[in-house]
Specification:
By secondary structure, the chain is α/β, with parallel strands linked by helices. The protein is 28% helix and 16% strand.
Length: 509
């Protein structure tokens, strides 16, 4: 059916994702369940993705320093997952996995864009993809046939202008660029997709404000709001009065003691409260699913992930295990917890099942994620054998991969082929390597990890002819690579933010 929305887009009101339908045809189809009439009864979605927030950075997760009453309230109203994972220990690959439901290894988006430069390291990293390919179908594009309004408000970090959210199916893009962090959290931000801001305005507050405006504009139709905060990524910057409050309560002996970081978390919490209050005010909360997640582990030094080992950029639990909360009124039993293993590739099929959208991926766009709706309904467990990670890069680790199967976790390091084996139920902190004591289990998991890499076409490191241990050190960040299909976009030039909002309002009339 040619809807008014489609007509407006075809007439040019939209540099808002023209070509999304074509992309869906190339990669698969999304079929709306039910007629267009009565779309206001469909579920809405608000997805908070926090940057660099650690597993222990919430009061409901056990922190005694940070203050997160609004997020804690969200947990008390929904389900909190204790075994939730990001698909990568750094940001861009996890974000790509959420958008597509596909492992970073399959996408070849395997490091933060543009990655770290180690020209004299032992291994040469593969020629990986430094953008979310336009051929991929994003969750925003998959929801289009069901009549959803879509917005991305915050950090994107999946390529240059030709890959921004408005080229990937989102009607509105606010603050999303190829940048991985803001030059400043206080205006002027120097982020080109933020049209204007009074000096001194705080970025986390502004994102919440714009999110509320989008909800207001979309209240009469189903919507998907993706709110990926820049916080709590560096540079650590917060409101002075909040910093002083946490400075006064900080315990120097605690691993969680940075007052600026704590203040940034409080601002994130306030943004969650503001958006949830808007849902309440508009009487939308009962039919809005709210998801709260982080993109990778907390940065060691800025926070403490204990009892998890290490932090962002490592293959230990502190680098990949995340806080996850899902509130689904009337379905999820309030105040429940789940120890089911879920990973960020699972959001795509889960949200589509919730929305009643049957997605049929094309042969070259197989989904890696599986829906965990049955877990949310407390109607069954997932039958997946294992989850996997592939990180052929240098960061706070050397290149390697991970498999988690049940309680067992194996880490394989590519430089020397060394493996480490842990039983996470008995040893959450990964202090006892069982590889030597359980060689058969280690060999079994190592083979499964290798077979999985082959199945997804994972790119591997190669020996570096310029290897020089005397010179090997982290150099400046690499440069983002251009699209080899230069000029190929889904929507042509970007509309301004004001034009995007105006078009969205026209579509809602």
């Amino acid at each position: 059916m040619l809807t008014r929305r489609t007509m407006l887009r075809l007439m040019g009101a939209g540099a808002l994702g023209l070509g999304a339908a074509a992309a869906a045809t190339r990669a698969g189809r999304a079929l709306a369940a039910g007629p267009a009439a009565g779309v206001q009864t469909k579920l809405n979605f608000v997805f908070f993705l926090i940057d660099d927030m650690g597993w222990m950075d919430l009061t409901c997760q056990g922190s005694k320093f940070y203050e997160t009453p609004n997020i804690d309230r969200l947990a008390s109203q929904g389900m909190r997952f204790t075994n939730a994972y990001a698909a990568c220990p750094v940001c861009s690959p996890t974000r790509a996995s959420i958008m597509t439901g596909r492992y970073p290894a399959r996408l070849h988006v395997t490091d933060w864009i543009a990655g770290q430069n180690r020209p004299n390291a032992k291994l040469r990293i593969p020629d990986w993809t430094q953008y979310l390919p336009l051929e991929e179908v994003t969750i925003a594009e998959a929801l289009k046939p069901a009549g959803y309004a879509t917005a991305s408000m915050g950090k994107w970090h999946l390529g240059g202008p030709e890959y921004w959210p408005d080229k990937q199916g989102f009607d509105v893009n606010f603050a999303g660029t190829g940048q991985g962090q803001p030059p400043s959290y206080f205006a002027p931000y120097k982020i080109e997709t933020i049209p204007s801001a009074p000096d001194g305005e705080y970025l986390t507050d502004r994102l919440a404000e714009e999110a509320c405006k989008f909800i207001d504009a979309s209240k009469d139709r189903p919507f998907f709001l993706y709110l990926p905060h820049y916080a709590v990524h560096s540079p650590l910057m917060a409101k002075k009065e909040m910093i002083e409050k946490f400075r006064a309560k900080a315990d120097p002996a605690s691993g969680q003691k940075n007052p600026t970081y704590a203040a940034m978390i409080q601002s994130v919490d306030e943004s969650v409260g503001k958006v949830c209050a808007k849902l309440d005010d508009l009487k939308l909360a009962d039919r809005t699913v709210v998801i709260f997640m982080s993109d990778n582990g907390g940065v060691a030094g800025a926070t403490s992930n204990a009892p998890l080992r290490a932090g962002k950029g490592t293959l230990y639990e502190g680098g990949i295990r995340e806080p996850l909360i899902v509130r689904w009124p009337g379905v999820v039993k309030a105040g429940t917890t789940s120890d089911e293993v879920v990973i960020s590739v699972d959001f795509f099929p889960t949200i589509l099942e919730m929305a009643g959208v049957a997605y049929e991926p094309g042969p070259k766009h197989a989904l890696d994620g599986i829906s965990f709706v049955s877990v949310l309904k407390q109607a069954g467990k997932l039958t997946r054998e294992a989850v996997y990670w592939h990180y052929p890069h240098y960061h706070n680790t050397t290149p390697g991969g991970i498999i988690r199967a049940g309680d067992w976790k194996l880490i394989e390091y590519f430089e020397d082929g060394r493996v480490e084996l842990y039983n996470l139920r008995e040893d959450l902190s990964e202090t006892k390597d069982l590889a030597a004591a359980s060689p058969e289990k280690a060999a079994e998991l190592r083979k499964k990890l290798a077979d999985w890499r082959t199945s997804v076409g994972a790119q591997m490191c190669t020996p570096n002819p310029d290897y020089d241990p005397s010179k090997d050190k982290a150099g400046p960040a690499g440069k983002q690579k251009a699209n080899p299909k230069k000029g190929a976009t889904k929507a042509g030039a970007s509309a301004t933010y004001e034009q995007q909002v105006a078009s969205l309002e026209m579509m809602s009339e």
